[in-house]
Amino acid sequence: MAPATGLSRATFAKLSPHPYLLASLEPSSDDAPPARTNGRGPNEVRHPTVNASSLSHAHGSAVVRMGDTTVICGVRGETILTSNIPSYRASNTETELKEYDLLVPNIELATGCAPQFLPGGPPTTLAQTLSTRIYSLLHSSKSIKPEDLRIWHTQAAEDVEADEDRMEEDEPDTGSGDKIVAAYWVLYIDIFFISFDGNPFDAAWAATMAALRDTKLPGARFDADREMIICSQKESRPLTITNIPIACTAGVFTGKETDRPTDGKFWMLADPDRLEESLCDESVTIVVDCKDGDVKILSISKHGGTVLTPQLLTSKQFLSWATTALGYNSPSSPCKLWIPSSRSRLGRTDPAFVARRALSRSGKNILHVDPNDYYGGCEAALSLQEADEWAEKHRSSDARQPFAAAEVKSDADCIGSTRAYSLALAPQLIHSRSKLVTQLVDSKAFRQIEFLAVGSFYIFQPPSESSPTPSLSRIPSTREDVFSNTSIPARSKRSLMKFLKFVLDYESEPQADVWKARANEPLTEFLASEFKLDATLQSYIITLTLSHDGKVSVKAGLAAISRHLMSMGVFGPGFAAVYPKWGGLSEVAQVGCRAAAVGGAVYMLGSGIKELQSPASDQAEAPIELTFTNDIEVKTKLVVQGTEGLHPNGLQISRLTAVTKSDLTPVFELLTEGAPTPAVAVIAYPTASVTDEDGNSSEYPVYAMVHSSDTGECPSGQYVIYLSTVRTSSAKSILEEALSSLLATVADGQEPSSCIYQLYYEQSNGTNALSMDGKIVSFSSSSSCLAFDDSVLDSVQEAWKLITVGSDEDGQYMKFEDREGGGDDEFYDY
């Protein structure tokens, strides 16, 4: 007998979606509950997740994900003087939000979020409709207090006299010292759809409310002399949200396109996906207020169709459905959107960002709390305004803190927008063979990072009898470089080639026998005795180790040189390291945060831990109770945090970050055919090669990392120079002299431009360690190395094992499903 043939369920659902959905909602068996084709019940919504403070340069932001519909909302405040509002009336305190257009929402669907929305196209009818609905609900719900958007000014006596000729109906009757509204904040609410799978209004509204709850407006005052508004981030204050309107949309499905009789039946499909929306001719949106634990209906609106009549919308049957769909009894209720809960909390250091990425895809619920208002912790990248505020916070000379002795010098007349800059606190190169690169590829996060080539390494040569002017000597790092270098004698070239050949295979048995007995000796002594390298060639090799004090051991030095040489040419000819655009490791941290958000992590910036209560020793299963500085309380099974513990014998590093308009293009010269244009160059000043005005010579090497505007850290035509050396009593003056020498050397006799911004500070080196005390896992502070230290990732993986031990999860560490369908070979192949 021939086997029965037919269409599979998936194929049938695609070919005949109407009858398939109807069959699922009205099963032939009474034992089978009604269900939708996506597996949800008729009243079941997709579990929403909210990640606040997702954008670093907005006053408030949030990412909301409902199934495969993902929306990001950013709120940006701008000021407008009342004198510039044509219809302004001081007596208007009721309708000022709407009359003066102080709330400006805009929805963008042309982002490639779905096939029907092509990037770059004009606003669609749906986008304009959604913007109008968001605008109407913002005003009708009265969630924002007009008082929060007013900028007050106390009039001086002379101001009142000067204004006597103004119309009485336009100005209040004020006396000397009375307060008037001088300006308003205008909130621009930009809503972008990242992915689209139905129910756009609910997702857009949730993102809007979450972003508004996250919004903090700078302190603002009116300067009467200059007739302008002066803002200060130091006096930022949050918006007061008076209520919490939550929207829930349902599609009305009748199955009318089939021959099967429905007897007038219809189904309310809460939170419809894109397929269900195409099958429903009618929808209804109900907006409720979930404030204080009660569910209060604010509005009901219907779109299309004739099934839901006005009588039905006000019937007990419909209101009962609404209470079921929006009540607190369901674990996936939209009202649950605002109730934070967590099993793991991760801190703000760089290892924690990587760990959070791994854990979010390993079945863990993550709540990230950071006392800072920015991502990245010690590796953050700051705008000039943020850098000024950061320097003010770290002015103290307390060496027990990670950062100290911060000081800013700037030329305000030469600086444009402060947000055009993104200065890294601790810039680090990433070698092409680094474990970090491998893990970014394994986790599919590399697609969100733009890597730039790190070009040549140079040695600064001070003036001498044979060369009266300072110069920069390029360090050879390949066989071709060595033989093409005319400044190295032939005999020295042979010695250098002998060392390069040795270090490429230094761990094999013949070579290992040579150095292992001397593993802890200084590398300089090993180079002189074994390879007969002179002081100049030794300085070349020590520079490639990127050692701050130059006192690197044989073991560590050979590993560093080998990594550099093995990384050469991996991603292209002529370079061995890369640098992430837009702020270095800060960008890696933000990409990790966004990736973790996709996995369900929740973020709260600007909130620290106020109180932590660990369970008693006889209550091992009890959760840890946390209270944050914003008074939110949560219970968690595990806390993973970053500490600021410093190594007792660790190095203290002095750093000087400078922005200049001097032309530094010569250090980015292309010397290898087919190589990409580098965005970073490294210049090393050997010990005693820099002397300050007081005659103090540098006791340690000085490193300068020159970044072009291609890094996104400064405007076009400018450069950022990151200088660092071991902290000494004269370190600051040494760094300033090194900066001046570099600018003069590259200028080649021309008058160099002065620096328009300088930030000096001192950084203490942390220990790379991991500790676990009960249910609290702690990472140490990141190091101040010039190249990323792969041992940091060993601590991350160890933490991941500690957290996931004994669980039922069988996911591989940092091995994630490819969400975009691309292969790893699009990034690199070796």
Helical run tally: 21
Question: In angstroms, what separates the terminal alpha carbons?
Answer: 55 Å
Alpha carbon gyration radius: 31 Å
The biggest sheet, with number of strands, parallel, antiparallel or mixed sense and barrel status, is:
10 strands, mixed
Keywords: Transferase
Domain Exoribonuclease phosphorolytic: 44-218, 243-313
Organism: Fusarium albosuccineum
Pfam family, one: GDI
Summarize the entry for a quick read.
InterPro entries: ExoRNase_PH_dom1 (IPR001247), ExoRNase_PH_dom2 (IPR015847), ExoRNase_PH_dom2_sf (IPR036345), FAD/NAD-bd_sf (IPR036188), GDP_dissociation_inhibitor (IPR018203), PNPase/RNase_PH_dom_sf (IPR027408), Ribosomal_Su5_D2-typ_SF (IPR020568). This is Rab geranylgeranyl transferase component A. The protein is of the alpha+beta class and 830 residues long.
Could you explain how this protein is built, in words?
Residues 164-176, 328-350 and 821-830 have low confidence and may be disordered. With 830 residues, the protein is α+β, with helices and mostly antiparallel strands. Strands 16, 18, 19, 20, 21, 27, 28, 29, 30 and 31 form a ten-stranded mixed beta sheet that branches. It has 21 helices and 33 strands. Pfam families: GDI (PF00996), RNase_PH (PF01138), RNase_PH_C (PF03725). One of its GO terms (biological process) is small GTPase-mediated signal transduction. Belongs to the Rab GDI family. Keywords: Transferase. It comes from Fusarium albosuccineum.
